[in-house]
# Entry
Amino acid sequence: MSGLQLVIGNKNYSSWSMRPWLAMTQAGIKFQEVFVQLDTPKFLREIRKHSGAARVPVLHHGDLTIWDSLAILEYVADVYPAKNLWPKNRNARAQARSACAEMHAGFQALRNACPMNLRRPARAVPMNDAIKNDIARIETIWRACRKHYGKGGPFLFGKFSNADAMYAPAVTRFETYAIPVAKDTRCYMDAILSLPSFKTWKDAALKETWVIPDDEVD
Ligand SMILES: N[C@@H](CCC(=O)N[C@@H](CS)C(=O)NCC(=O)O)C(=O)O
# Structure
């Protein structure tokens, strides 16, 4: 065992938890999974034992605690350089980090209107201009990464990388809310949705029975 312990929330809803879980699983990095159920009276009590930020995901490695999904992705890439979780090429890596930073800090309109909900049957919801802008920007980022750095495979930088882990929740939102997308976007989405690690995560999500009313959009 690697000594890594990843604290996550509900697989159906926790988009932030999914990112490091997918990257680590896809890279074949072993870790112990610790589950804290979101939106329950004991969530805060439990998560505060792991991090003062009181959010999932959290990664423990020995005495070290990393309490943010992107920081966890960076740390895992540092500890396991041979897994190539960032692109090898320096320019590609800088682009991947820019794309990840934009995802980490942005796309609030899409996030708010279309929460990750893997159980929800695919159905469209009304889209205002802010949501449409977020969608268009994400498609532009995906297209540019694929065009300049995607020759070696179906992912944003060819082979699977942390950038794909960061954008995987957006892929599920596009799917769940039946968002019309261009053909190249659809190809990229299919690559993510076909990942063995994604399928394992989703299968587990579909077995969960907890419902978070705020994340159920009709
Ligand atoms: N910036 C953090 C955000 C994490 C986050 O907001 N996690 C949500 C779950 S997906 C959470 O823990 N929510 C619990 C709450 O707000 O009480 C990260 O990237 O890890």
Summary: Residues 129-149 form the longest helix (21 residues). The chain has two domains: 4-83, 90-200. The longest strand covers residues 4-8.
